[in-house]
Design a protein that fits this description.
globular, 8-stranded parallel beta barrel, TIM Barrel, alpha/beta, 14% strand
């Protein structure tokens, strides 16, 4: 059975980095991810650079990557200006985002949920008219840092609105990493009944160590598309020091071991993780990456001892 992985590290992961990452490193990372077999890569964001300075080089990054025909590169867009920049960069897919929580939406987008719909509807209409695919993100589906529990009717309403705008897929986000498998199964089962499992994706964070368990729970409900971030890049602004997105290496390792088809070469993926870890100069959360690098180090040490014998 095939599982689609949407790599969000270059956008959702890197946007949380305080130290500026060079344009060259971003380009190399995206190229390495594509070379590893990832067919869907969210490369950057066209949000106003004043909001996210780390991704101010979106045009340069997209100009510099070696685009592969079988890979879909996408970017997050908040409005028509962002949409125009995405079009000028030659993208064929864009992503819209909003929250299921009123307070989080106000903090994140500076608009109420009701006021956000017309803006996104306009962007979706323009993108579709240009022949672009449109993806939707719904944040705080499983919990909000300001409101706590988020009623499922909130998520249902926002998801349905996005689908009516013409998005082909809605990614349901555990933005602050509070979800547990029981909750994921209950929420996903209800939302799948509203639409169809192939129109939904899971976007889990590993803030409290339940990320992969939540993927398993979502798999049980028929979800077959998951977002993840190379090395576990990313963080939670509401939980300083906590892990962020689930790691692509960890996700692929688990899915491969369960005999799902991902189409991803784990060795090349680990090389991509090692590359960006070195660029950032700090250890990333991915457990599979840590094990891989530790094994490499032990092998190198053993080889050096033999050479010296």
């Amino acid at each position: 059975m095939k599982i689609q992985i949407v790599e969000v590290g270059p956008r959702d992961g890197l946007q949380n980095e305080k130290e500026m990452v060079s344009t060259s490193a971003k380009i190399q990372l995206i190229d390495k991810l594509a070379a590893a077999g990832l067919k869907r890569v969210e490369a950057t964001s066209f949000v106003n650079p004043r909001w996210i300075p780390q991704l101010a080089d979106a045009e340069e990054v997209l100009k510099g990557i070696k685009r592969q025909n079988e890979v879909t590169y996408s970017a997050l867009v908040p409005n028509l200006r962002g949409m125009e920049r995405a079009r000028e960069s030659g993208l064929t897919e864009v992503a819209l985002f909003m929250s299921a929580s009123e307070t989080h939406n106000l903090k994140n987008i500076n608009k109420s949920i009701e006021d956000t719909f017309p803006v996104l509807r306009q962007v979706a209409r323009e993108a579709l008219a240009l022949g672009m695919r449109v993806r939707g993100y719904v944040s705080t589906v499983f919990g909000c840092p300001y409101e706590g529990n988020v009623p499922i009717d909130n998520s249902r309403r926002v998801t349905n609105e996005l689908l009516e705008m013409g998005v082909f897929e809605v990614s349901l986000g555990d933005t602050i990493g509070v979800a547990t498998p029981k909750q994921v199964r209950e929420v996903m089962e209800k939302l799948v009944k509203d639409t169809a499992s192939d129109r939904l994706a899971g976007h889990f964070h590993d803030t409290r160590g339940t990320g992969l368990a939540n993927v398993l729970a979502a798999l049980d409900t028929g979800i077959r598309t998951f977002d993840s971030s190379i090395g576990g890049l990313g963080g939670c602004p509401y939980a300083p020091g906590a892990a962020g997105n689930i790691s692509t290496e960890d996700l692929v390792y688990m899915l491969n071991g369960m005999e799902y088809e991902t189409g991803v070469d784990l060795n090349l993926l680990q090389d991509a993780g090692a590359f960006i870890q070195q660029e950032l100069g700090r250890e990333l959360p991915s457990k599979v990456l840590k094990a891989h690098l530790a094994a490499q180090s032990a092998s190198s040490s053993h080889s050096n001892q033999e050479d010296g014998a």
